[in-house]
Specification:
The chain is α+β, with helices and mostly antiparallel strands. It is built from two helices and five strands; from the N terminus they run αβαββββ.
């Protein structure tokens, strides 16, 4: 009778060790997946650098949900007056009031952008 219990106990120990190994492998695979996902995400982040005196546009998060069909989500232009560490930027509007914003909410403002006509296509009048 004790040999049957020994065999059953040994089988149970092997089964528990196998489950522990499966759990460790799943944990390692989850860690690898998280690292690869973070690397992919970080690779696609575009870093913006601003300089003092540069004109920028500010993203208006109020319009994020209830934007009008043709209403722009960007306000401005504003002028960069000071750059703080960790991405905070102080901007000034046309009336002279200054406030700090997160640099991720800004994008460069390009004045006098030259937009030319690339190609013109004329449509023939329809034939009856």
């Amino acid at each position: 009778m004790s040999t049957y219990q020994d065999v059953a106990g040994e089988a149970r120990k092997l089964h528990i060790q196998e489950l522990e190994e499966i759990r460790r492998n799943a944990y390692d695979n989850a860690q690898i997946f998280k690292e690869k996902t973070k690397e992919f995400h970080d690779k696609h982040i575009s870093f913006k650098s601003f300089s003092i005196g540069q004109k920028v546009l500010l993203f208006n998060s109020k319009f994020k949900i209830f934007a009008g069909k043709l209403k722009s989500k960007w306000e401005g232009p504003f002028i960069v007056t000071q750059i703080f560490p960790h991405g905070a930027i102080e901007i000034e509007n046309t009336s002279g009031s200054r406030f700090k914003v997160n640099g991720q909410r800004l994008k460069p403002y390009y004045e006098n952008a030259q937009v030319g006509i690339v190609e013109e296509i004329y449509l023939d009048e329809p034939k009856n």
